[in-house]
Amino acid sequence: MTPSEPAQPPVALQVRGLDVDLAGRSVLRNVDLTVHRGEVVAVLGANGSGKSTLVRAAVGLVPVRAGSIELLGTPLASFRERHRLGYVPQRSAGVAGVPATVREVVLSGRLARRRFAGPARRADREAVDRAIEHVGLEQYRRRAVTELSGGQHQRVLIARALACEPELLVMDEPLAGVDAASGAKLAEVVADLVAAGGTVVLVEHELGPLRPVVDRAVVVHDGRVVHDSPADDAHVREAHSERHTHPHSAEPARLEPFPGEGVL
Amino acid sequence: MLELLDYPFMRMALVAAVVTGLTAPAIGTFLVQRRLALLGDGIGHVALTGVALGLLTGIAPLATAIAAAAIGALIIELLRTFTRTSGDLALAMLFYGGLAGGVLLTNLAGDSAATLNRYLFGSIVTVSSDDLTVVVALGAIVLLVVALATPQLFAVCQDEDHARVSGVPVRLYGILIAVLAAVTITVAMRTVGLLLVSALMIVPVAAAQQMSRSFRGTHLWAMAIGLAAAVGGVVVSFEIDTQPGPTIVMLALATFAVLAAARGLVTLVLRRRSTTSRGDV
């Protein structure tokens, strides 16, 4: 890797020489990943490739054996400004034993910006309402999360991550079990976040509705990064200009899959 | 019915019931949310060994029970976090160890099964004024901590990974929940008894879920149902001369049964209505 090129925007996520062992088995070996601010990077790979472990390690959920991780310019171990980081875990992880409404779950995403004790302030409530509207669930605010469809539930988890108004959004398989409407909504949210100066890293099998908004795809195979393919300039331009719909765009959206996509 | 307030022991038992009825579901809601509904049972069994230690050594059983319960709660949490022992296996071992240790030590202390029985299923006549002070103070602490830390506790119990990424010290809050549960159990020991205390932490939550879709609603309704069951149970057990623990738990279960049946009926009626007027969905 060459020293920082002057034209490049600052780095949002920097992973260097990452080794991760889980239950005594080597899952990631010598992984490097650099994500610049304003980028949308997809981490692709088959089940068991280590793609999920890569982002889980990046946000501090998995212990690291070797290597360094920097989030928004700060080493992970001393990264305290947690509100700058939004995280959407795999949906299967989030089933609790007591019902909770959409508002309650999304409000829990606001913790990093709330004071230690006491009720939510006006700014908190407004941010929660904005996040819920952003994912298009305003009519479900008071519904129990368990009464929603898979796609709607996923949108709740995304709203929860948006509630702290993050600069870097990390999503683990946000399209799993998601209907077309929710997938389209997700692509819209990603585009809006990047338009506002944010950065998105997501793990997926297949990009589907997200393909037009992804700038770069990194393919993980057997614990190593085997492919890192930036979208061509035309695609980046197209993706940055008209993300939602591009019926009259001169350049077609990237419709052919990235290498490594859809490998099971 | 008001004449039972003439008895000093009844007044103390009722105060203990109020504290127990509020605190048990207040912390129990988080245990259910975290899918650790049986944690209270495990800690209750360990507290039994603590009581027996108190009987054996002549130290106040309430103090030894709190110590044993807190240590047991910490052990479960540490086993869950640091070893690959699954939560339910760790709990099972605490169940057996706690019960066997409690009975064994009570035998060694020379106390009869009747003494142990009072701690197992509660006994309204044994609440002393010293005990009551401790019970009220501990109950107030549990309620205060729950009231202050509910946003954090909710986040940790709802989704541990997300809470950790949000910067919540998840391990610390896990220990806090376990210790709060341990304190609550010893608070409830005199009223419900150690073997049934977990029921008062869990059953009101199950009942409240029948009528609430929100966490907050479930939490508050569970505390109201717990309060009603605990106070009602103490009164009924006085009137019909039964042990308070089983009486309280049967009242809580009856509340659950009525609410579950009512909810089933409402669902049935709504479903029928929506099938007859299909089209405007």
Number of helical stretches of at least 4 residues of chain B? 11
At the first level of CATH, the class of chain A is Alpha Beta
Structural class of chain B: mainly alpha
Q: Which architecture name of the domain at 2-197 in chain B does CATH use?
A: Orthogonal Bundle
Following the backbone from N to C, one meets helices and strands of chain A in this order, namely EEEHEEEHHHEHEEEH
Question: Which outline of chain B best applies?
Answer: globular
Order of helices and strands of chain B: HHHHHHHHHHH
Provide the CATH architecture of chain A.
Answer: 3-Layer(aba) Sandwich
Q: How many DSSP-defined strands of chain B? A: 0
Secondary-structure class of chain A: alpha/beta
Chains forming the largest contact: A-B, 34 and 32 residues
Radius of gyration of chain B: 20 Å
CATH domain class name of the domain at 2-197 in chain B: Mainly Alpha
Walk me through what this model shows.
The complex is a heterodimer of chains A (264) and B (281). By secondary structure, chain A is α/β, with parallel strands linked by helices. Chain A has one domain (11-236): Rossmann fold (3-Layer(aba) Sandwich), CATH 3.40.50. Chain A contains six helices and ten strands, in the order βββαβββαααβαβββα. In chain A, the strands form two sheets. Chain A has a six-stranded mixed beta sheet, sandwiched between helices. In chain A, strand 4 and strand 5 (74-75) form a beta hairpin. In chain A, helix 2 packs across helix 3. In chain A, 45% of the residues are buried. Chain B is mainly α and 281 residues long. Chain B is globular and about 70 Å long. The termini of chain B are far apart. The mean pLDDT of chain B is 88. The interface between A and B is medium-sized, with 34 and 32 residues.
